From TrEMBL:
Name the UniProt record assigns to this protein: Multiple sugar transport system permease protein
Transmembrane segments annotated in the record for this chain: 30-56, 90-111, 123-141, 173-196, 217-239, 284-303
Domain of life, source organism: Bacteria
Chain positions covered by the region annotation Disordered: 1-24
Statement: the UniProt record of this protein carries the keyword Transmembrane: yes
Length: 312
């Protein structure tokens, strides 16, 4: 009897109420899935449902939540500090992410030239991605770009005078955090490098025979065939950038200063929820962030059909 025939007989026996066979690995599978299920329900799904309900309440953590309808949303519309945090976050995402991806792509192309010791260079360039979001690196960054930090000391040796404290100046503080974001290019670089390895060498050989320059080969072969990888990195890094928190928190000392120039959206959400204990308002902000990230992700997918090419 064929496999299809066996499946048909099994389906008929079950419809007739026949005995159900228990797979011997079912219990083992459930045991291995238990941590994920506990995490999904305990850390993701249930907190999301709770935050959605709290978004329509006035909840200070010290008293039971009180239903207030759409008052949090009305307050958000008139909250100038929230509007400023959105502007700061958008600048961070739409300036820092393209610069980070360009840096990652250029270094991936460089590493794909058959260099000796590729594993070493790959590890060195990937290391900032592991450390970039850490508190230690953020503290180091604040010290480097402070008034008496390493950057100003090097500048003084080169003859520059009266250099500002980069992290204490409202005009430059956000730029230092964007620079830290660009520096963590290791993760997209590794993905670009894997994509470059998948491009057949015969395309480059044929283009070289036709007299195409290296620049022409890069823009007419590498970039078009790499568009699915570029799209993947864009979606991933935009979502990550919207959720950035640690760098701004540490560099600004948890205040978003100076003059709210580094007040990221997630940092303002944290201040409302855990400093001012306005958990209802913070919950509404969290859902607004989810909607914003969802909209930009949907736009990315919609626009991708005009510039992403898949090799059929």
């Amino acid at each position: 009897m064929s496999a299809v025939g066996e499946l048909t007989q099994l389906a008929k026996s079950r419809k007739k109420g026949g005995p159900k066979e228990k797979h011997p690995d079912n219990k083992s599978a459930l045991v291995f899935m238990a941590p994920w299920l506990l995490g999904f329900f305990g850390i993701t799904l249930i907190p999301m449902i709770a935050s959605f309900a709290l978004a329509f309440t006035d909840y200070s953590l010290l008293a039971p939540p009180e239903f207030t309808g759409l008052s949090n949303i009305k307050e958000m519309i008139g909250d100038s500090r929230l509007h400023n945090s959105l502007v700061v976050t958008f600048l961070y995402v739409f300036v820092g992410t393209p610069l980070q991806l360009i840096m990652a792509l250029l270094l991936a192309v460089l590493l794909n030239q058959g260099l000796k010791g590729l594993s070493f260079y790959r590890s060195v360039f990937y290391l900032p991605s592991l450390l970039g979001g850490s508190v230690a690196i953020a503290i180091l960054w604040r010290q480097m770009f402070g008034a008496n930090g390493l950057i100003n000391q090097v500048g003084a040796m080169l003859g520059f005078e009266n250099l500002p404290g980069w992290v204490s100046n409202p005009d430059t503080a956000l730029g230092t955090i964007i620079l830290l974001h660009v520096w963590t290019f290791g993760s997209p670089m590794i993905i670009f490098l894997a994509g470059l390895r998948q491009i057949p060498e015969m395309y480059y050989e044929a283009a070289a025979v036709d007299g195409a320059s290296k620049l022409a080969r890069f823009f007419r072969i590498t970039i078009p065939l790499l568009t699915p990888i570029i799209f993947f990195n864009v979606v991933l890094q935009v979502i990550n950038a919207f959720q950035s928190f640690t760098q701004a928190f540490v560099v600004s000392g948890g205040t978003g200063g100076p003059s709210d120039s580094t007040m990221f959206y997630t940092l303002y959400l944290y201040i409302k929820g855990f400093t001012q204990f306005d958990m209802g308002y913070a919950s509404a902000m969290a859902w607004l962030l989810l909607i914003i990230v969802g909209i930009f992700t949907a736009i990315n997918f919609f626009v991708s059909k005009f510039w992403v090419f898949y090799d059929d």
